[in-house]
Write a structure and sequence with these properties.
This protein has helices spanning about 1-5, 15-30, 35-40, 45-55, 70-80, 90-100, 110-120, 190-200, 215-220, 220-230, 245-260, 270-285, 300-305, 305-325, 350-360, and strands spanning about 140, 145-155, 165-170, 175-185, 210-215, 235, 340-345. The protein is about 45% helix and about 10% strand.
């Protein structure tokens, strides 16, 4: 079996052939029949005999130069042209037709690209730098009312092409819906009013919370930003076109629209949407056992009642283990309370890069 495992794979290289011949020779010397050893490599005996006759690598490679190969002068001209003042900010898509307009042909566009790639010149060569969007700042919530995530989603109405807009704020630590409203338009003024009401209801003081969202108009509108500044709220935004920078709101909307109680038909009017949303929020906050907070309700997590709930669960499991120890191969289920929730956490590579930058700065 070990012999077969070593022999499987590509058998085309000369080095592979040499290794296989040595292995087969060792097997035969140990008493194995030649054809049995060959079967381990899915080879015929005649193949092994042929390899022994041609024990040296007979390949010499191409002996002629391709007739269409570009010359060293042409290669140098491609490089010189691409870094010239006129063309340094342009790609071969732009350079080749411009050269043709001037009555100049050097090589085809694909060859132009191939040479630039070999010379590592396909990146931005001039002042036209690519857009760099920094990763959002990492935050960590260790108690309620530290980090909110909010977004807007569509609710389908009975009128084709017409939607209602659900504005929803979520506490990251407890996963509680701390505020919501439904409107027929998306406006920064409406989101500002909702945020003001939430801060009043939750007794939020200045410089207490971070509010994270995507880059939509209602999120970055002048009225919303001014309101956040007056309330002492730190704004946080996702990177453009990066949906997973706001995973909590996206997950929330999936739960909303895929729960069994979500209506199968569009809402008749905005009042019907509001009535249904009131029922959903009550269910979600007070009955739904959220997997992200170890299956307690967002309301109990927000109030701090989850500590006692999870403690009781842990005692029940410990008691069950004592009664029937043979049913437990290891520890009981982990019923520890979630003590921290991270928003946009740094990856290990980013952590090491940040650490290096700090060390260099010091």
């Amino acid at each position: 079996m070990a012999l077969a495992e070593r022999g499987r794979g590509s058998l085309t290289s000369f080095e592979d052939r040499k290794n296989i011949l040595e292995l087969i020779a060792e097997a035969v010397a140990a008493g194995c029949r030649v054809f049995r050893a060959c079967e381990a490599f899915d080879l015929e005996v005649r193949t092994i005999q042929r390899w022994k006759l041609n024990s040296t690598d007979q390949r010499h490679g191409p002996l002629t130069v391709p007739s269409n190969k570009i010359t060293d002068e042409e290669r140098a001209l491609i490089i010189k042209t691409s870094v010239s003042e006129i063309y340094v900010n342009l790609s071969p898509h732009q350079i080749v037709p411009r050269l043709a307009d001037d009555g100049i042909y050097i090589v085809s566009e694909s060859t132009f690209y191939r040479v630039l790639k070999a010379e590592k010149l396909t990146a931005h060569r001039g002042l036209s730098k690519p857009r760099i969007v920094e990763r959002p700042k990492a935050y960590e919530a260790t108690k309620p009312n530290q980090i909110y995530s909010w977004d807007i989603t569509y609710l389908q109405s009975s009128m084709r092409g017409h939607f209602y807009y659900l504005y929803l704020f979520l506490d990251l630590f407890s996963r509680k819906i701390v505020g919501w409203s439904i409107h027929e338009t998306q406006e920064a003024e409406l989101s500002a009013i909702l945020l003001t009401d939430i801060c009043k209801n939750e007794k939020i003081s200045k410089n207490q919370i971070v509010v994270h969202s995507d880059n939509g108009g209602p999120m970055k509108g002048a009225t919303m930003l001014a309101t956040m500044q007056s309330l002492g709220i730190m704004p946080s935004f996702s990177r453009p076109s990066v949906s997973n920078d706001s995973p909590f709101s996206e997950s929330m909307f999936k739960t909303l629209k895929y729960c069994p109680m979500y209506p199968s038909k569009p809402f008749e009017d905005i009042e019907a949407a509001i009535v249904w949303m009131q029922k959903f929020v009550n269910w979600y906050n007070t009955e739904h056992l959220h997997s992200g907070i170890n299956f307690v309700t967002p309301e109990s997590k927000h109030k701090g009642d989850d500590i006692e709930i999870l403690k009781n669960r842990n005692e029940i499991y410990k008691s069950a283990q004592l009664k029937n120890p043979n049913r437990w191969s290891g520890k009981t289920r982990n019923w520890d309370a979630v003590t921290a929730v991270k928003l946009n956490p740094l990856k290990e590579k980013e952590k090491s890069n940040t650490k290096e930058k700090l060390q260099q700065a010091c």
